[in-house]
Amino acid sequence: MLENMWEPVILSLKVATIALIFSFIIGVTAAYFLARKNFPGKVIVETLIMLPLVLPPTVVGFILIIIFGKHGFVGQLILMLFDQSLLFTWYAAVITSTVVAIPLMYQSAKTGFLSVDKNIETVALVDGVSKFRIFTHITMPLAKHALITGSILAFARALGEFGATLMFAGNIPGRTTTMPTAIYSAIQAGNMEIAWTYVVIIITISFFMMWFIRSKEN
Question: Which segments cross the bilayer (predicted)?
Fold first, then answer.
């Protein structure tokens, strides 16, 4: 029983960690490009990136089902290649968590990149340093506080994702049940002790992450 109780905790941490990796790569790449480029439709692109932040979770879940479900283009391609649907798997939880975490990672990374003095990058470029090396050795270190903040917020958002995950990944014990969905199931079953256990774990993790962010700001 104790082992089963910890399954949602382990799955949630795994899903949130993988989602953080994907959201960091996507969010940082998009932020670096869009912070330095102006082109027609830039506002639309940024709006689409930030949209999951304000959309109802059910809408996000519905869109993901349409795209990655058995009848969606991506879903059919995955089904053809791997003979398996992403629907109601823990991979679906990762995709959902990544989608809702990207806006936070993107916004923080963009703020960090905009705060970097472009003259430093220009001087390095004139001295013959490659753009990739400038990005990894100058831009990212100078924006590290914003990137760390974005990473923590993205991880926390992925860890707490519920509505879209419930729609897309489901709530299958031992397979797709994360802590938020486990809390939902425990309350429905009247098992308040289990519900409180997961609530305390999430609050504790969230508290220390937010404390870390605040401590870096002061």
Answer: 15-35, 47-68, 88-106, 146-169, 194-213
What totals of helices (H) and strands (E) does the chain contain, helices first?
A: 12, 0
pLDDT digits (tens, 9 = 90+) for 68-101: 988 888 989 998 888 888 999 999 999 999 999 9
Domain 5-57+89-215 grouped into CATH 1.10.3720.10: yes
Given a contact cutoff of 8 angstroms between Cβ atoms, the answer to whether 35 and 115 are in contact is no
**Which residue, among 114, 92, 110, has the nearest Cα to 102 in the 3D structure?**
110
Per domain, the residue ranges of the chain are 5-57+89-215
Q: Whole-angstrom Cα distance, residue 98 to residue 92?
A: 10
pTM of the model: 0.92
Please say whether the beta carbons of 164 and 19 come within 8 A. Answer: no
Q: How far is CA 73 from CA 66, 82, 85, 114, 139, in A?
A: 8, 14, 12, 37, 37
